[in-house]
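worker-3 :: picked TraB family protein
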Amino acid sequence: MEIEHLKIIGTAHVSKKSIEEVKETIRAEKPDVVAVELDVGRYQKLMREKLGLGEDKQLSVKDLIRGENIGLFLISGLLTYLQNRIGDDLGVKPGSEMLAAIEAAEEIGARIALIDRDIRITMQRIIDSMSLREKLRFLFNILASFFKKDEIEDVESLKSEDTLDEVMEYFKDISPKAYHVLVDERDAYMAHKLLEIPEDKVIAVVGAGHKKGIRYYLQNPEKIPPLVELLSSKQQNSTLRKLVLVIPLLLIVPFILAFLSGVNIQGDILKFILMTGGFAFIGSMVAGSRLKSAIIAFLVAPITVLHPLLAAGWFAGLMEAKLRNVNFGDLENLNKCDSLHDLWQNNLFRVLLVVAGANLGCSIGTFLTIPQIILPMIGKIIGAG
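worker-3 :: tokens ->
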């Protein structure tokens, strides 16, 4: 595809003016292809909503609680919350300009091209790229937004280059690596997908913040990273990740050595179970869990401590989510939370508190076992030797 035949429309995702601009431009230009900033999943969701089919409001509890998915759920859910909040202020549903582009393309018989990367890959790469400090800072900023009453008066200002640069710089300040994944990588990916389009005349409808980056990569295609690199999941070897892998060994090895040395460890095993399980139970209850969820935390904590890929909070949260019948309505209702009391009444928020509480309690219990159990056990082993 020749770049001269490409027109990029930069939109604000919750702008009535953008909707009209998209429709008018496509009808006037009559392109062969209309490329939209959507992946297959988001496109299918828009089509279901258009047909009035809605979507399953029951969350998959198992998928929600799984360790590798809860981060995706939280970040994508919180970002959706922010976009929905802006949309509510302006009376425009997020994604309306993409739907307008699709409908206009259908009117003139143009092919529709989905050029955005799968949102799940983007979110996973964001999580993998962020440090613990960046994640906490991001979460703090999102939670702080729950209590801000400011309304958006001029959404069109969001499309101006000066305003966009200011917003992007703010996000880059919170997490430069996450910014790179969310913006730069997607600019490169969408440019790559545009270059793959064989038709001559193309209109691309993307968020205004991506327009400059996409044009850069189109003009410098040699700068686009290999597609396999943009679609892979990064794994950061952070100090925290290494620590999580090492701790189980530090706990298991003394027990094995004590057993081989003939040291009586039955009492130590019982103390280990009571400390890790007990603190996980307390953490779960303090976080507001049901008794059944706290009991689950107690039972699984000693096992999860020894397995670097498991966490007591996931299991406690799974039970809590079942007991509270968490659904997507709870996520949508976060938009209406104006106080801590409102958050406390939200089932999803309560489940996440239980997950955090049980995990924190289990971690406290685990670290307390070192001076209370592990070090004395090492002394017994040395004495037995």
